[in-house]
Amino acid sequence: MTGLVLQVMPQSKRVSVANDDVPGFMQPMVMDYEVAEPAALSSLRRGDEIHATLLSDGAQQWVLQDITVVNKR
């Protein structure tokens, strides 16, 4: 998944992302995601463009892992 970081929420181990289209799975939208590796939040800033692996049960759990900043703001 790729997207733009809108807010970093270390207290809840979450990040708000305006994600791009995930073909066959999810249209572009803004969502809050749990982060699998909370230490990754320390390197994220609002405005960063990221690439990450999205893990989901398709209903309630939306987790990002292997987050990489592709364009730092």
Describe this structure in words.
With 73 residues, the chain is an all-beta fold. It has strands at 2-9, 14-19, 29-35, 49-56, 62-71. The chain has a 5-stranded mixed barrel. The protein is globular, with a radius of gyration of 11 Å. The model has no long low-confidence stretch (mean pLDDT 92).
List keywords for this structure.
73 residues; mainly beta; OB fold (Dihydrolipoamide Acetyltransferase, E2P); five-stranded mixed barrel; 5 strands; globular
Question: TL;DR of this structure?
Answer:
By secondary structure, the protein is an all-beta fold. The chain has no helices and five strands. It has a single domain, classed as Beta Barrel (OB fold (Dihydrolipoamide Acetyltransferase, E2P)), CATH 2.40.50.
Tally of helical segments: 0
Shape: globular
* Residue share in β-strands: over 45%
Write out the strand line-up for the largest beta sheet, numbering strands in chain order. Answer: 1-2-3-5-4
- Rg (C-alpha, Å): 11 Å
